[in-house]
């Protein structure tokens, strides 16, 4: 206390400049620069730290986040090293380009690499750069690891999971998965942000390549010679080695296998997974799925993993299960991962997911897209917290189980291109939390449930090219609907798309016209055989409408009521 008093008394009337570098303990700030009144007017206190939380907790107002070099700045920085050595202009440009690409603006990496690469021969620095692809530079790693060392155990787990598995994934989605692992991910991700170990762009988790390398190197050093003794596996050769030789141990917590990198078929057997009692995350995926070519599914259906008939996992710790091309007709009878948060099996051969009721209270996401042999959905009675169900491209699906209506938190249903689906169970109308429903491409779907208008939280409805013959009047009750798309629903010419108008029903409430859709922002009615007889004047009552698509229809003139759409930004009329 005497020391603190002494600092204040001696400096309170003096204009001072104080620089505190690499502060990692709030007690240092409290002891040395307690409050502004400790120093005279015009004083400046500069604090550098790896932890933004430390500054915020001390009440620091002006925080400057150090940025990496731009390409131009990095190039000029490297030119300083080239002046000490005789390099041809071509060699300098090639080497600088490689170093800039590797360092990505990080001054530390530029300094470390520039200090020794420019003294090497062409063959030597080429060889060294190739080595860096597999073995990170220790000097760079040691400095970067200081921030990692300051994390607690759960924050370290979050960091390593992102570095190994979840970069570029949606932040909220990752939080759901990692919260299921008990990692308190909201505060953990905040800690990583404050230490500049990750960044967030468009809600995607991002990480500097060298920081990601540092995280992966930490995992690799858990066992340099035996991949099966590490906590996380992402490199296809390491996974192949561990499963082929049955050396995968109880230390493995996560496996992400990219099938597009496999050259040989890999057997998934019960024996290979038998020792993985701590497995939390398992993803077998094909990165080629992101190509966007949804018409050509032949390559996506091919799977270089052979799931043995006795294939099963240790379910106790399992939180995330993603199996592309799962070749069996159903899940094992003893499938009971009580802590599972997501179950995804795209392009699977599943005919029936499970029989009877499975109590999976923590399961929030199910994705069976393009599982073309699936005939009906399972009973959802035991999956009480399910939020999203994706069945897009399940071309044999004929029935959605009525138990779906019991799900109180269910918000997203994708049934796109379910060609055999004719209707939804009436219980669908009990989904009070449903926000998005996708039925586009369900060519045999002809009738919505009678009480569909009671879906008060529905905000987006996509029903392009369905087999609907009448636009139901109860759509007027969907007051929170923002997007409504019926493109390609042609029906009979002229008389089909007559929009509902106000009528009086003596035995029921007044049916509201489309003006009841007071929140509608986007309406798509392209290619719907609309004519001048289709009562288009009703569109003028959609006061919130911003986007109106009427392309490829048969009307000649627009009603004058269109001028009432004061918020309209886009009106598409091509080929009318």
Topology:
Layout: H1 2-11, E1 17-23, H2 26-32, E2 44-49, H3 52-57, H4 71-82, H5 89-103, H6 107-117, H7 122-132, H8 138-149, H9 153-166, H10 171-180, H11 185-194, E3 199-201, E4 204-206, H12 209-220, E5 232-233, H13 236-244, E6 254-258, E7 266-268, H14 270-273, E8 281-285, H15 298-301, E9 305-307, E10 320-323, E11 342-344, E12 365-367, E13 388-390, E14 412-414, E15 436-438, E16 460-462, E17 483-485, E18 522-524, E19 547-549, E20 570-572
Parallel strand pairs: 1-2, 5-6, 6-8, 7-9, 8-10, 10-11, 11-12, 12-13, 13-14, 14-15, 15-16, 16-17, 17-18, 18-19, 19-20
Antiparallel strand pairs: 3-4
In brief:
26% of the residues lie in helices and 12% in strands.
Task: Provide the residue-averaged pLDDT.
Answer: 85
Number of helices: 15
Computed Rg: 30 Å
Low-confidence stretches: 290-300, 492-513
Q: Helix coverage percent of residues?
A: 25-40%
How are the strands ordered across the major sheet? 5-6-8-10-11-12-13-14-15-16-17-18-19-20
Give the class from helix and strand content and strand pairing: alpha/beta
| Terminal CA distance | 83 Å
If you had to describe this structure to a student in words, what would you say it looks like?
The protein is globular, with a radius of gyration of 30 Å. The protein has helices at 2-11, 26-32, 52-57, 71-82, 89-103, 107-117, 122-132, 138-149, 153-166, 171-180, 185-194, 209-220, 236-244, 270-273, 298-301, and strands at 17-23, 44-49, 199-201, 204-206, 232-233, 254-258, 266-268, 281-285, 305-307, 320-323, 342-344, 365-367, 388-390, 412-414, 436-438, 460-462, 483-485, 522-524, 547-549, 570-572. 26% of the residues lie in helices and 12% in strands. The chain has a 14-stranded parallel beta sheet. It has a two-stranded parallel ribbon with strand order 1-2. The chain has a two-stranded antiparallel sheet with strand order 3-4. The chain has 15 helices and 20 strands. With 576 residues, it is an alpha/beta fold.
């Amino acid at each position: 206390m005497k020391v603190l008093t002494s600092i204040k008394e001696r400096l309170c009337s003096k204009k001072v400049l104080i620089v505190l570098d690499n502060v990692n303990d709030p007690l240092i700030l409290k002891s040395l620069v307690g409050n502004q009144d400790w120093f005279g007017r015009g004083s400046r206190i500069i604090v550098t730290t790896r932890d933004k939380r430390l500054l915020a907790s001390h009440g620091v107002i002006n925080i400057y986040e150090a940025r990496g070099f731009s390409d131009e700045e990095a190039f000029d920085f490297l030119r300083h090293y080239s002046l000490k050595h005789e390099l041809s202009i071509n060699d300098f440009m090639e080497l600088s380009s490689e170093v800039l690409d590797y360092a990505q603006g990080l001054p530390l990496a530029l300094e470390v690499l520039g200090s020794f690469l420019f003294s090497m021969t062409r063959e030597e620095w080429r060889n060294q750069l190739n080595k860096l692809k597999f073995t990170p530079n220790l000097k760079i790693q040691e400095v970067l690891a200081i921030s990692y060392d300051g994390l607690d155990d759960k924050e370290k787990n979050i960091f390593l999971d992102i570095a190994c598995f979840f970069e570029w994934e949606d932040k909220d989605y990752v939080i759901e998965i990692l919260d299921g692992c008990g990692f308190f991910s909201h505060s953990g991700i905040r800690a990583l942000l404050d230490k500049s170990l990750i960044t967030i762009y468009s809600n995607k988790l991002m990480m500097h390549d060298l920081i990601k390398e540092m995280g992966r190197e930490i995992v690799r050093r858990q066992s340099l010679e035996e991949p099966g003794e590490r906590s996380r596996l992402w490199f296809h050769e390491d996974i192949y080695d561990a499963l082929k030789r049955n050396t995968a141990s109880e230390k493995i917590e996560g496996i992400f296998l990219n099938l597009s990198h496999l050259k040989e078929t890999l057997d998934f057997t019960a024996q290979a997974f038998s020792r993985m009692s701590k497995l939390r995350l398992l993803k077998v995926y094909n990165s080629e799925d992101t190509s966007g070519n949804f018409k050509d599914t032949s390559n996506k259906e091919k799977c270089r993993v052979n799931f043995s008939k006795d294939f099963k996992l240790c379910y106790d710790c399992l939180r995330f299960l993603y199996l592309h091309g799962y070749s069996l007709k159903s899940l094992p009878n003893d499938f009971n991962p009580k802590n599972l948060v997501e179950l995804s099996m795209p392009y699977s051969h599943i005919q029936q997911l499970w029989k009877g009721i499975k109590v999976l209270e923590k399961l929030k996401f199910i994705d069976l897209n393009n599982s073309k042999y699936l005939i009906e959905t399972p009973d959802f009675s035991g999956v009480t917290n399910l939020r999203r169900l994706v069945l897009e491209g399940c071309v044999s699906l004929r029935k959605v189980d009525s138990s779906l209506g019991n799900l109180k938190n269910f918000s997203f249903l994708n049934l796109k291109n379910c060609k055999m689906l004719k209707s939804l169970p009436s219980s669908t109308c009990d989904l009070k939390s449903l926000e998005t429903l996708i039925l586009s491409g369900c060519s045999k779907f002809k009738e919505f449930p009678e009480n569909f208008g009671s879906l008060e939280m529905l905000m987006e409805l996509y029903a392009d090219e369905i087999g609907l013959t009448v636009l139901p009047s109860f759509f007027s009750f969907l007051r929170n609907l923002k997007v409504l798309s019926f493109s390609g629903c042609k029906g009979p010419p002229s008389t089909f798309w007559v929009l509902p108008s106000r009528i009086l029903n003596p035995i029921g409430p007044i049916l509201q016209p489309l003006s009841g859709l007071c929140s509608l922002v986007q309406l798509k009615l392209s290619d719907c055989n609309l004519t001048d007889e289709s009562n288009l004047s009703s569109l003028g009552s959609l006061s919130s409408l911003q986007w109106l698509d009427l392309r490829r229809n048969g009307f000649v003139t627009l009603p004058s009521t269109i001028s009432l759409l004061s918020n309209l930004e886009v009106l598409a009329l091509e080929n009318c």
